Amino acid sequence: MKLKRLFSGVQIGNLELKNRIVMLSMQLGYAEGGFATPPFIRFYEERAKGGAGLLIVGGAHIHPHGTGGVNFLAVDDDRYIPDLRKLTEAIRTAGAKSCLQLLHSGRYAFSILTGEQPVSASEVASPLSGEVPRALSVEEIKDMVGLFTDGARRAREAGFDAVEICGSTGYLVSQFLSPFTNRRTDAYGGSLEGRTRFAVEIVRSIKQALGEDYPVVFRLSFDDYVEGGTGLDETRSIAGTLEEAGVDLLDMQVGWHEAKVPTSAMLVPRAAFAYLAAEIRKEVAVPVVVTNRINDPLLAEELLQDGVADLIGMARALIADPELPNKARTGRLDEIAPCIACNQGCMDGVFMGRPVSCLVNPAAGREARFEIHPAKKPGKVMVIGAGPAGMEAARVLALRGHEVILVEREEELGGQLTLCGTARDRAEFKSLLRYLIHEVRRLDIRILTGTEAGEESVLAHRPDVVIIATGARQDLPELPGTGKPHVYTAASVLRGEADLRGRVAIIGGGHIGCEVALYAAQRGAMPPDVARFLVLHGALDPEQALAYMRRTRPVTIIEQRKKIAAYYGRTSRFGILQGLRSRGVTLMTGTKCVEICDGGVVLEKANGRETLEADTVVITSGYVEEGALYKRLEGKVAELHIIGDAKKLKSCQQAVWDAAELARNI
Ligand SMILES: Cc1cc2nc3c(=O)[nH]c(=O)nc-3n(C[C@H](O)[C@H](O)[C@H](O)COP(=O)(O)OP(=O)(O)OC[C@H]3O[C@@H](n4cnc5c(N)ncnc54)[C@H](O)[C@@H]3O)c2cc1C
Ligand SMILES: Cc1cc2nc3c(=O)[nH]c(=O)nc-3n(C[C@H](O)[C@H](O)[C@H](O)COP(=O)(O)O)c2cc1C
Fold it and tell me: How far is the CA of 376 from the centre of ligand 2 (A)?
């Protein structure tokens, strides 16, 4: 498919964009003291060089009590302008346009950070902090309009080509729009017109202050997915009102932070909310941006061709690969490092007060330090193990000009990454596997699969450097009954080698246990494409199809600790738990399996022992570092390193990062 629409120019008010890829706003946590620091500027410069048409920077808070987190960008004072100017210059020089998102968190602010009680439309507690905000007085609302306008003025002075008002995701402006958080009875509440007044006044005030031709973008949620909040019907009307008020572009988002519908996690299908953008586009003449889980340029092109929206918003996809637009434009689609929506480094990082990072792209946020330079002394480097750590190391070493030999015991590349993503809800992991395999095959790397590396075979190659990336193995725990024929390891189940029969008991409720449970439940249910076919052809009605999709085998997770899925970050965990529960998976916490018997497992709980009947038992615990080869090679090769799970059992993210760091320094 030619990406003609995606790479065609588009007009936003009087602003011309060279293509239709918009980098969406993101709080990065790099803005120490609120300033656009050198790493912050470099982050955006890379994305501008990577080819996106418009970069929306921020949200930048327009008042200190409106900040959303640690080291978030600020535009509440003129002292921020000089650094912001450096940022816009860097973006402009790289050939892109810039826009600053103006944000006030309202009830999503934390008094522990701001030192003040949060403010909002009404006194409705924030589920993020548990704090009850103070309702703004009419006078304060007028002041707030002034603060947004001051922020816009500073943005223009700093050289931004446009500003965006954050009226989505549950932040202050959306708190006024929603009947759930706006219980006011004055001119700023009540009717939809009243609830929209604050937003309209901000838009008008900015237009008045900066001129009609200065582009104003408005970020709006299609649907809050909050009970009693704003849904599509009201949003249609709000969109029309904002257009009348002078908005030049509608940047459509979905869901508040407190929404019960997952909107950004891996289980969200790509472009799942695009149908809503099409609804809004019918209502307005101004261009519309469609967002959420669009990480594939081909899909982006399709959405544009189908008239769903005028522009494509991408946030995390451009963290994962700043070069995505250029690679897409030049037909190098397979070389795009894909965002897998794991949220481990980005959203979950920010929620934990950490700067944004990325599992897929270890350079994100540390672009200067992670530049790839040719090796000073190219040598022969052997990488043992082709999991994510080994493949990433091999990739970077090859780019730096080393002679690389990648050795893998199995016939296929990928290590544990071949198991991640077996459950449908985690399937996006497969795109990372595809990318890494494509890269190690594309680059000048000698790959030896089906080859177990041992001390002798390694030394026979006379390598200058050896990197041990042998990962982890699963040792079955000392538990009576593990040798029984109906007992399987996680890997054998996920590889499809186990005879998954009847009732399944899964021992261990960590991420591997959850993935096995999702997979086991999915194996017993009607696949979505079959359900779709049967409904479309009249064989089943939608209700019946849904019931078949939910009709699964009985699956129980047994976890001795208090929490299931504790490994996942905040934005993924609730979706994982909802996925397990909606498939009827029983979650047992504080429960220890003490024996596997024929036909069941013996469980120890706080109140005594019981037997759970089970036909299949899966053990998901017992992973240990596979570091024996490292020990055998110590002192026998000139340079020896160990990375990833082999060094310390942790995560795919740590494995890739270890590799990325080491391979840049050899
Ligand atoms: C079901 C599942 C879900 C997961 N979900 C997540 C998640 O959501 N997020 C996350 O961050 N992590 C997740 N992980 C963990 C992640 O997959 C691992 O942390 C990561 O794969 C470790 O990478 P690695 O390259 O260090 O080791 P591995 O992936 O274990 O790869 C090591 C490779 O070395 C090979 N090898 C070993 N010894 C030799 C030898 N002597 N010679 C040649 N080859 C050898 C092995 O065959 C293997 O291919 C998950 C893991 C599983 C199993
Ligand atoms: C780390 C991070 C910070 C974000 N901060 C903001 C923000 O300040 N304002 C905003 O409107 N959206 C913010 N978002 C949401 C994104 O703009 C985007 O809507 C969301 O990530 C879905 O798009 P994607 O699937 O392309 O990533 C943030 C997202 C991430 C990952």
Answer: 39
665 Cβ neighbours under 8 A, 6+ residues apart: none
φ and ψ at 407, to 5 degrees? -110, 130
Q: How confident is the model at residue 524 (pLDDT cuts 50, 70, 90)?
A: confident
C-alpha 499 – ligand 1 centre gap (Å): 23
Closest ligand to 382 CA?
Answer: 1
Q: State whether the beta carbon of 350 lies less than 6 angstroms from ligand 2.
A: yes
- Distance from C-alpha of 462 to C-alpha of 451, rounded to nearest angstrom: 17
Q: Read off the pLDDT of residues 106-145 as tens digits, 9 standing for 90 and up.
A: 999 999 999 999 999 999 999 999 999 999 999 999 999 9
Closest CA to 204 of 242, 235, 169: 242
Secondary structure in 3-state letters for 254-267: CCCCCCCCCCCCCC
d(CA 419, CA 409) in angstroms, rounded, equals: 16
- Both ends of the chain: CA-CA distance in Å? 40
Q: Which domains does the chain have, with CATH numbers?
A: 10-351 (3.20.20.70), 380-473+624-663 (3.40.50.720), 487-621 (3.50.50.60)
CA of 596 relative to ligand 1 center, distance in Å: 27
Say if ligand 2 is within 6 A of residue 264 CB. yes
User: Which of 504, 437, 448, 510 is closest to 474 using CA atoms?
Assistant: 510
- CB-CB contact of 48 with 322 (8 Å): no
Predicted TM-score (pTM) of this structure: 0.96
Q: What is the pLDDT of residues 408-442, one digit of tens each?
A: 999 999 999 999 999 999 999 999 999 999 999 99
Among protein residues, the one whose CA lies closest to atom 6 of ligand 2? 26
